[in-house]
Amino acid sequence: MKTIWKVILIAIAVGLVLAILGLFMGASQSVVLNQKGVHIADEIESRITESNLSAFKNINVKAGFSDVELIKSDHYGVDAYSSESEWDWSLDNGTLSVTRKSHQTVWVMNFNFSTSSTSRNYLKIYFPDSAVFDSIDINADSGDVNLGNLRADSVKISNSFGKVAVNSVVCDTLQVGTDSGDFSGSDITARNLIYGNTFGKSVFKSIKADRFTATCSSSSITLSGCEFGNSVITSSFGEIRADSFTSSGLDMNLNSGDIDLSGEFSGDTVIRSSFGTVSLVTSLKKDDYTYDLSNTFGDITIDGDTRSGSNSSVKGGTAAANSLRITVSSGDVEVRFGK
Questions:
Q1: From 9-18, 141-150, 240-249, the region with the lowest mean pLDDT
Q2: How far is residue 333's CA from residue 301's CA, in Å, rounded to a whole number?
Q3: CA distance 169 to 182
Q4: What is the pTM of this model?
């Protein structure tokens, strides 16, 4: 075993022993392993409870290791708790700023045996139904982010580790980026929707956007009942599935994984895949398209008629209003047109 792994395993074992000892001795119930070594976490408990704030139009959050939730209520308010560091907040010129200060420097590992119901750090921001925000900017290092039932000009969410859920949101621009964690979005209306995910499931349901851009590294993407104008979807690994999907221009690029799409595909539809099966069912008729389907290895099937062999290509249609081009290196291609 390499020396570095021996050191890591020894450090983990020591941390576990210290955590258990600390629990039974009544000391801090959290032991951290970071660049300072294994040690008892600082006991800096912080709480914010403000239930009668004046109206604010902007929200700026740096939550660190905390859950974040925006909740529709009958008032403007903030409720936050942290068991290891301080919350700092201000309300100036219509902007609510909330920051969780970290006193643990760089966190590598946290052994927490606490059974307290308040041990999980959180931030909750309340707003009335009449609120219309100019901008919402949420940045979290590790924790779940949940927001919904709101209207805003701009919404930006950045999360390193944890789930992100966005529901019932109307905005001009929605930007979501997560390094490791699942995303779910539903009942969203936006002019511009920008999405990025490195590792995790991505689920979109009943979303309307003039422009949709998604860039994923290793993520399954599910689109259900979505209506997009122009959309660009790029993914390295993972399946892409869409049903009841409406697009007026689609550019999709997948390195490895199956693609299964059904809906109405107007404008220019371009799909490229290196490894995997591509299946597309469109409600528009064959005469509505000029089409160019090709693959290096695999079958090409159009409305049940299959052509087998390597380096296959099928073209059809002239001067149609819409175009369909599918290019696959290794995998079957199947297209079904409307009747």
A1: 9-18
A2: 6
A3: 18
A4: 0.84
